[in-house]
């Protein structure tokens, strides 16, 4: 029997309504219970809570925690699903793509635009699709599964803060689509690139916090750049590197 690891990190999907608004408080077992998920097609699901925070509060050291859990889990499990807040989901999926290198098993990151406790939440579909892909995928890598789309983890961007179709793969085709019947339909044009030989699984959690992405606009005061350089930052933009 194949085994799947589901990691909980908090976010909207784990939120409940309080007097002060929604707060991330459900653990991953409660999330799966609300979604009606126990076993899926005879697969064994194991869970672990590693964070429980609003994803806007996530820090690079949290990415390191997640990456280490994923790296460790890939040795014992056939696939991994990470439940995450949507605001920084794309950042986490991108960082994992570089921190956990050459995975031969699927690592899936997902979340929800509406808490699992709320009627009509998209969490149920996203969780079921993610588990399905983690269990049945023909390919390994870091992926984002959201609203029926399977996307390359380092190409995803959040493009909508309201609609359930909140994420888009930028300048790279979607990997696959999951229909309402639970069928995975792969993009045949890119499957070959995922089946090519890779190196061995590697963990590299080194990062440099002195990186700042500066949006260049007309009238930008050069003192902004000077100040960042004085702080020891490496500055990048979509046009130049300093």
How is the secondary structure organized here?
Layout: E1 3-10, E2 15-18, E3 21-24, H1 28-34, E4 44-53, H2 60-73, E5 79-83, H3 89-99, E6 100-101, E7 106-110, H4 123-136, E8 141-146, E9 149-152, E10 156-158, E11 167-169, E12 176-178, E13 184-186, H5 188-195, E14 202-203, E15 211-213, H6 222-230, E16 234-236
Parallel strand pairs: 1-4, 1-5, 5-7, 7-8, 15-16
Antiparallel strand pairs: 2-3, 6-14, 8-9, 9-12, 10-11, 12-13
Helix pairs in contact: 2-3
State mean pLDDT (0 to 100 scale). Answer: 92
Q: Which strand order do you get reading across the main beta sheet? A: 4-1-5-7-8-9-12-13
* Spatial extent as radius of gyration: 19 Å
User: Low-confidence runs (pLDDT<50, min 5 residues)?
Assistant: none
Reported by name, the CATH topology of the largest domain is: Rossmann fold
- Report the strand count: 16
Could you give the distance between the termini?
A: 52 Å
Structural classification: alpha/beta
**Level-1 CATH class name of the largest domain:** Alpha Beta
Main β-sheet: number of strands, strand sense, barrel status?
A: 8 strands, mixed
Order of helices and strands: EEEHEHEHEEHEEEEEEHEEHE
Fourth CATH level, the homologous superfamily of the largest domain: L-asparaginase, N-terminal domain
What CATH architecture of the largest domain do you see?
3-Layer(aba) Sandwich
Total helical segments: 6
How many domain regions?
2
